[in-house]
Structure formats: structure tokens, C-alpha cells
Amino acid sequence: MRCMRIGELAESAGVTTKSIRYYESIGLLDEPRRTSSGYRSYALEAVERLEFVKQAQSSGLSLAEIKSILEIKDRGGQSCEHTRSLLQAHLADLDRKIAELQDARVELRKMYDRAESLDPAACTDENRCQVITETVDAR
After folding, report:
1. Angle of the 80-117 helix axis to the 63-74 helix axis, nearest 10
2. pTM for the model
3. Helix, coil or strand: residue 67
4. What confidence score (pLDDT) does residue 135 get?
5. Three-class DSSP category at 91
6. What confidence tens digit (pLDDT) does each residue in 62-119 have?
7. 16-25 contacts: CB < 8 A, separation 24 or more?
8. How far apart are CA 54 and CA 59, in angstroms?
9. What is the domain-level CATH number for residue 12?
10. Residue 73, in any domain of the structure
11. Based on the domain organization, do 48 and 82 belong to the same domain?
12. Which of 14, 36, 53, 62 has the fewest CB atoms within 10 Å, i.e. is most exposed?
């Protein structure tokens, strides 16, 4: 069985050696065997695991969520339903954030449009900008 050192693993998986050490410390990646000289020695499966971690991160999953999926897999279980529920929660959160951004855009558009119609010479309040703050008369 071909094994590789940490630098080779990092290059193969497209991560840093620091990331690999961190993933080991939090249990995302098993502690590798050590050579007689103390070097870490990784099996080829470590590349697949790291690629999975990267792909899961890019979908928005946290390292803790990724770890929960991998723990199910390590016990020989099926992780699809668990993963589906995690993704559903992320979708709901993303939908909420999109709605908040759309609301913020509406408000920014109102301010921008108001700025187009205001006379800069009429801005006499020392503590506020008339573009941001509507006056009582403008409401």
C-alpha cells in the first residue's frame, strides 16, 4: 500500500499542511501512522477524505457539521438523511439572508432616490445627513 507524507497529501488534496494538522486535531482526519523516523504517513484514502471536506465546506457546511457526517460514515452508517437536514437548514438560513438583503436594497434605493431630489444647500442639521434621515416634513 502506497503511503505519503504530509506535504504530498497536502499537494494532492489542495490543502495546506497546517489544515491537515488542524483537521487531525479536531477529528476530521484520523491520526496517521508514523514512520520509524517520526514522519506522518498517510494512506491514499486521506486524499478522498480531504477532498470531501473541501467540497462540503464549499457548500456552506461548517467543520462541525462535516465532522458529524463523517462520524456517521465512520460507524458504517448512512449519512444521507442527516446531510439532507443540514442542507435544508442552510437553505432556510440562506433564504432568510436573501430576504434581508432584498429589504436592505429597497431601503438603499429609497435613500438613493431621495438623494437625487434633495438640495445639498438645505442640509443644515449638524448631526445628520438628510439623505439618510428623512425629515418630518418629507414623510
Report:
1. 170
2. 0.75
3. helix
4. 54
5. helix
6. 999 999 999 999 999 999 999 999 999 999 999 999 999 999 999 999 999 988 888 8
7. 20/50, 23/50, 23/53, 23/63
8. 9
9. 1.10.1660.10
10. no
11. no
12. 36
Higher pLDDT, 32 or 66: 66
pLDDT exceeds 80 at position 134: no
Q: Does a structural domain hold residue 133?
A: no
Lowest-confidence segment of 22-31, 48-57, 114-123 by average pLDDT: 114-123
Question: Are 93 and 56 part of one and the same domain?
Answer: no
- Number of helices followed by number of strands (H, E) in the chain: 5, 3
Task: State the cell numbers at 10.
Answer: 497536502
Identify the domain containing residue 86 by its residue range. Answer: 78-119
Asked whether residue 121 carries a pLDDT value surpassing 90, the answer given is: no
Residue 135 lies in a domain: no
Domain assignment present for residue 50? The answer is yes
